[in-house]
Design a protein that fits this description.
Alpha-Beta Plaits; 5-stranded mixed sheet; alpha+beta; about 90 residues
């Protein structure tokens, strides 16, 4: 099983709608590690690491977001990340 790590920026209506909690819950359901945080410019930034197939499932979920979110654009790049076994919300 191939391991993957992605650096993701999500733009749109993604702050104040439970997006970080949705991201953390989804990552935990998929047994992924990494982190998510709000940025001052209104975007959400995340690093997601784990098996490639699960990372791709996660990105697909981020494109939908939770109920009141409206993700417009998602920028995904490869990154290096040492898996910690946990997915955290950073403040």
């Amino acid at each position: 099983m191939s391991k993957s790590a992605k650096h993701v920026y999500i733009s749109g209506r993604v702050q104040g709608v439970g997006f970080r909690y949705f991201t953390q819950r989804t990552a935990n359901d998929l047994n992924l590690s990494g982190w998510v945080k709000n940025l001052a410019d209104g975007r959400v930034e995340a690093v997601i690491a784990g098996p490639e197939e699960e990372v791709q499932k996660m990105i697909k979920q981020l494109k939908k977001g939770p109920g009141f979110a409206r993700p417009d654009t998602i920028k995904v790049t490869n990154t290096e990340y040492e898996s910690t076994g946990t997915f955290k919300i950073r403040y």
